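User: Sequence in, structure out. Go.
Assistant: Echoing your sequence, followed by the structure tokens.
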Amino acid sequence: MAKLIAVIKREYLERVRSKWFLLSTILGPFFFGVIFIVPMVISARTRSSPDLSHIVILDATGTQLGHRVARTLAGGITGDVSRADVRAVTPSTLAAAESTATRDVMRVNDPMLGYLVLDSTTIAGKAERYAGRNASTLVDVKTIEDAVRRSLLAQRLEHEGLDSSRIRTLTEVNLEMRAERLTERGREVGGLASAIFSYVIAFVLYMMLVIYGQQILRGVMEEKTSRVAEVVIASVSTDTLLAGKVIGVGAASLTQIVAWALSTAAVYEGRGLVLSRFGVGSMSIPMPHLGLVAGVLLLLFFVLGFIFYAALFAAMGSTVSNEQDVQQASMPIMLMLIASIVFVQPILLDPTSTFSKVMSWIPFSAPILMPLRMTLVQIRWYELTATLVGLLAGCVLATWLAARIYRVGMLMYGKRPTLRELARWVRRAA
């Protein structure tokens, strides 16, 4: 036990005393603050182009819809005069008119942004076409699309005899959906806040597993190539050395997560002051409730997931003797991690689907996807228990395999072993 504690202490202190650890711990909350605050500032300041109405409108509908769209782009159904160039065309001359409009827009000294095509499919409420310099600017395209939709709706209502002066008042209704999550504790915040919180948790778990898993792999490889491992193994068993590495590095990562959580909470509390300096009003985004039981479960999933992946990274590190083989050796483990993070978006969209449930049960993806689902929906106790038991069994199996590969690999040099040779190592060390 004394030797295990000594290895844990060495691995822990070696990392928390490093400049990289201190720098990342300090800058981590700043990074999370940036990804939290910057999108708010950008979305608050995002506006369509000021000269968006300076376009060519090819109206092949024969209903004056083009002039109505031009007025809508300028400021309303009965708003200011638009700068749009409305050209009435027939379906037979539409192709030639498009060619002319394309040349007009492509001229360097012409301020026209693009051209909009309105035809029979637009009247039917199916489609309109736009081509221009700003076609990749989503805000501009969305503004033009909304202008066409409102204009077409107003035209249809006028055709039914409704007063045009009341159309905009009656048709423009902006509703904000406020979703609340109901659990055994009562009402909780839901919707956007839960989705953001869940995504951040999944991303942080993935990032920590990748960063510290790679550190273990490279650390094992460096000890092996420098022959330090041979001296250490002479006084400490390989199982003790492997366990000390996993626990020590895991404790360092957990220390960083706790520091990030506390600092990020402080950044969140002070978001109003920061946003006001950017000219953005304070945005009320309450964080979801995270009780003691949920916090303990998140900690368990992280610890078990770290043991699972750290053991595999350490085993792969013991099989390589040079930097060139590191990426290839870590690729199978990285594929499991990447597969887990790839399924975050589908689970965010539907956390109760069968696919979401199955992916959160599998041991290699459970450390990331089950915490994600926990913060989105309420999970039954027996499902959480079964997932933890399965993850624990995966940890036992991964540690058993890693210990046997590590025991032989640390003293083997030369070319990287094949899968058949790894299987032979496991049988010999068992």
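User: And one key feature?
Assistant: The radius of gyration is 30 Å.
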